[in-house]
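Quick start: read one record
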Amino acid sequence: MADRLRHHLRDKEFWDRVVVVTSKDANLTKSHGRYLESRLIVLAPEAGRVTLENGTSPPVPLLPEADRSDMNEFLAQLQIVLPVLGVDAIRVRPVTPSLVTGISSAHSPTFTLRDVKARVDALAQQIDSEFTVLAGSTVVAEWSRTGDAESTRKSYAAYRAHNERLIAEGVIAVEGGVGRITRDHVFASPSTAGAIIVGRTCNGRKEWVSTDGQTFGVWETRDVAQ
């Protein structure tokens, strides 16, 4: 492991942290490791939370049925434990009701954020405790605002960098001066999502509104108020 980390530190520039996965019984063989590697490389794009820099997709090695079952259980445990440690790379979200599929859902109500002048029409839901903007939502093509105060300039620069990263990763596709969310995407908060979508600061708790006129903030605190 030490040799591999030194090699990556010298030759790979895309990483700044590492997660080491092992077994308490030290019973993972090389074949087990290759099976897990292959499955992890498949799970990362499915989760859609990170950009996968790995250039190869190794085939899933043949394992006895009992070993495959054990490794799949191992992966299931990783999908529970890693998010607790702040690593969401393989946290695959449940099927969501996107604008493309129209699948119904038992999650939160669908919240809308519209700005006719900015050509914005976005839908979002709270799914598995995460604020998720749904595929097909239209958003601003770029973040172009600047500010006078230093704190405002820094805040706007952060939003602009966020917008540019989402475009680079293919989450936002720009065509005809309009951005479109290509796949359901999780944001840190409704306000961050709103700011990226409308191209200005946004109080997401007030500006995201459900079909019955309820704001996200009111919906989120519904149980507290009762």
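The chain has a mean pLDDT of 85.
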